[in-house]
């Protein structure tokens, strides 16, 4: 057990206390497990609420702030938050313009956000929902019916967040979010398993010298296991897997995402190979983001997410954002 | 070997190519190993140049940009850059207002920056130097005579960078940098060793269930090895070690820094404990930064850096910065 924790039972509460003291521009309700923009509700703006199991930081709490999420609901590690958290978040951030729930496609999250939507609507809050399901690696897996939601979640939260920030109405913000998801695809690889605090040891067995192609963000099995490959070979495999399912005719937004324990030095080197493959495939790149954004605790590995952009989506991507995990433009 | 690389020999060049394509606002000279602000030299501004071995990303290349460094010189992994890189960087960014070299206290870096300063002065560039030596864990170690330079490097680069950005003269920027270093102290712990690409396996042996207190950023030995401690116990040890050597009478700037492979979830939880200890010791906190900023490849662990602030230093810390690794305020 090589974890910087007190005991497994308090990991999420401890992290929320630490977020609260580091980020005075957030309201962190440790007891009720809700992270809010301090200035919420913002008059005239649609509010964005997301959430999911903890262990993927900075997703989602690190993306709460002007230009992105209004609130996030962290569950226990790799466990869906409960409807109460989502209803509480929605009530706290709704200005009357309605709330968009951004839901990664995992069975627990989908059920709980559905239930929360009903409860919130009973309280008179207008709710729209968008499901993120960008991972091309597998259909159906340990936690999911259909495709898993992974790296594109960041794109949906950022771009729909920019639309909300400039006052677009709920149906338009929802349409933008849906469009971003439809235009996005991801593929991830693991070079090591991750260890949850509760288990204290790797969640699956990945022998040294092998890698798992098509891994999920909870260590769910991927497509296949192979002997270790070079960064260039992995980029070929991952980018081609994405492009089997996405045929972009306009420049893409690229996320080269670390799973948590892969050093930035390696991620940048991997990005060079991703860009090489994209060039070879004739795909031009409008923007690239490299870093640990949608993680799996201490897993080593990386994922590639591409989104086919247009002028309007690019404008919204470039719009100012001010969160703990993503910040630019003001 | 669980690395996302091609071969050890090209790790730094690959990473620089990846940085170049992700950050069009940087000029990355892959062949000569220099990373520059695209708008350098900036008329009327002192330029800041730093550098050191690779493997500590985002330090230093990720801190090049408006409000922070003008240029960075990455060496091979855990190996000092050479004087040629530093002279080339200084010549590229000097506007005539002079250049400040920011040097972490490691024998190779100190020698090479000294030589580079002489060579640059021969070319008519005015050079000042500041040595960063904030690590209270040990005096003298594997790579260092005196104290090692670690987390405070980020503070020096950010705060002196803000002074340069507003047009302060070289002697003033140097004085600010020196002041920040003198007011800063750090202490780090490792929960695992790191693996360099060249070696392909851990650089030292740290049995599971033990931790190394007072680790350096290259895995140099610390003060002592102990059976695993809780996050709270580690915070007690680290903060008290810092406060043995720093007795702040005004609010501090705190960096709770990950060594590379420690998840953000754990770092925030550790921050909660660091803040608890500071409170118990009567130290008030002006600003807190939590994240992986001064890393040691894939090492698990964390460090705490405190800097005793005053109004002017706080104003410079809060000033806008726009780099790949640190960005706020515009």
TrEMBL record, chains A, B:
Keywords: Glycerol metabolism, Kinase, Transferase. It comes from the Bacteria. One of its GO terms (molecular function) is glycerone kinase activity. It comes from Streptomyces tabacisoli. It holds the Pfam family Dak1. Homodimer. The dihydroxyacetone kinase complex is composed of a homodimer of DhaM, a homodimer of DhaK and the subunit DhaL. Residues 7-328 form the DhaK domain. It catalyses: dihydroxyacetone + phosphoenolpyruvate = dihydroxyacetone phosphate + pyruvate. This is phosphoenolpyruvate--glycerone phosphotransferase. Pathway: Polyol metabolism; glycerol degradation. GO terms for cellular component: cytosol. NCBIfam families: dhaK1. One of its GO terms (biological process) is glycerol catabolic process.
């Amino acid at each position: 057990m090589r974890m910087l924790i007190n005991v497994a039972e308090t990991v999420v509460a401890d992290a929320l206390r630490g977020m609260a003291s580091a980020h005075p521009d957030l309201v962190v309700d440790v007891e009720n497990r809700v992270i809010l923009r301090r200035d919420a509700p913002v008059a005239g703006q649609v509010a964005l609420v997301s959430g999911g199991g903890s262990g993927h930081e900075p997703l989602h709490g690190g993306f709460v702030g002007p230009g992105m999420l209004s609130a996030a609901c962290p569950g226990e590690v790799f466990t869906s938050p409960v409807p109460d958290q989502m209803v509480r978040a929605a009530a706290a951030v709704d200005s009357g313009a309605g709330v968009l729930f951004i839901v990664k496609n995992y069975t627990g999250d989908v059920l709980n956000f559905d239930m929360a939507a009903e409860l919130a609507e009973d309280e008179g809050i207008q709710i729209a929902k968008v499901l993120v399901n960008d991972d091309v690696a597998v259909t159906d897996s340990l936690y999911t019916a259909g495709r898993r939601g992974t790296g594109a979640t960041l794109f949906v939260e950022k771009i729909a967040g920019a639309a909300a920030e400039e006052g677009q109405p709920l149906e338009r913000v929802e349409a933008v979010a849906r469009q971003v998801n439809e235009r996005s695809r991801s593929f991830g690889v693991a070079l090591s398993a991750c260890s949850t605090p509760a288990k204290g040891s790797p969640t699956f067995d990945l022998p040294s010298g092998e890698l798992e192609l098509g891994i999920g963000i909870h260590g769910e099995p991927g497509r296949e296991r192979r002997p270790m490959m070079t960064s260039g070979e992995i980029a070929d495999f991952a980018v081609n897997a994405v492009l089997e399912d996405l045929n972009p005719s306009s420049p893409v937004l690229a996320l080269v995402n670390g799973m948590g324990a892969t050093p930035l030095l390696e991620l940048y080197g991997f990005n060079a190979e991703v860009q090489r493959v994209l060039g070879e495939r004739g795909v031009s790149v409008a923007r690239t983001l490299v870093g640990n954004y949608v993680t799996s605790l201490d897993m080593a590995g990386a994922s590639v997410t591409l989104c086919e952009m247009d002028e309007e989506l690019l404008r919204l991507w470039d719009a100012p954002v001010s969160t703990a995990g993503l910040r630019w433009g003001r």
